């Protein structure tokens, strides 16, 4: 499975977060990732719900289906430093979130659209 970056950030700063429970929003993902680095912003795509906190994570996003408004079960978290991103992978990959083991890995660059 190829993980795509929704924006252009260096891949060592942007993390893919998979196997999220469908009821988890971006603010909850941001809160979880505060344990590896402080969160500055959380944004839900399409719902346009935002929240702010403090810190070094640039963004945390849960991806939603445009038509149904339901979470697709994955998202992205971006840090300011590669060290914090690697710490998040080490400490959060396989963690339990509402009964599901989340996957945390470096995100891959999105291929150009045709």
From TrEMBL:
<dbReference type="InterPro" id="IPR050502">
    <property type="entry name" value="Euk_RNA-bind_prot"/>
</dbReference>
<dbReference type="InterPro" id="IPR035979">
    <property type="entry name" value="RBD_domain_sf"/>
</dbReference>
<dbReference type="InterPro" id="IPR000504">
    <property type="entry name" value="RRM_dom"/>
</dbReference>
<protein>
    <recommendedName>
        <fullName>RRM domain-containing protein</fullName>
    </recommendedName>
</protein>
<feature type="domain" description="RRM">
    <location>
        <begin position="13"/>
        <end position="109"/>
    </location>
</feature>
<dbReference type="Pfam" id="PF00076">
    <property type="entry name" value="RRM_1"/>
</dbReference>
<dbReference type="GO" id="GO:0003729">
    <property type="term" value="F:mRNA binding"/>
</dbReference>
<keyword id="KW-0694">RNA-binding</keyword>
<dbReference type="InterPro" id="IPR012677">
    <property type="entry name" value="Nucleotide-bd_a/b_plait_sf"/>
</dbReference>
């Amino acid at each position: 499975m190829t993980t795509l970056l929704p924006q252009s950030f260096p891949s060592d700063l942007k993390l893919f977060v998979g196997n999220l429970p469908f009821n988890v929003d971006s603010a909850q993902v941001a809160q979880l990732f505060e344990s590896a680095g402080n969160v500055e912003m959380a944004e839900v795509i399409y719902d346009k719900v935002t929240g702010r906190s403090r810190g070094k994570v640039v963004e945390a996003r849960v991806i939603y289906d445009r038509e149904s408004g339901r979470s697709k079960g994955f998202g992205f978290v971006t840090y300011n430093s590669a060290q914090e991103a690697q710490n998040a992978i080490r400490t959060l990959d396989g963690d339990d979130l509402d009964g599901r083991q989340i996957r945390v890995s470096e995100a891959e660059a999105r291929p150009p659209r045709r």
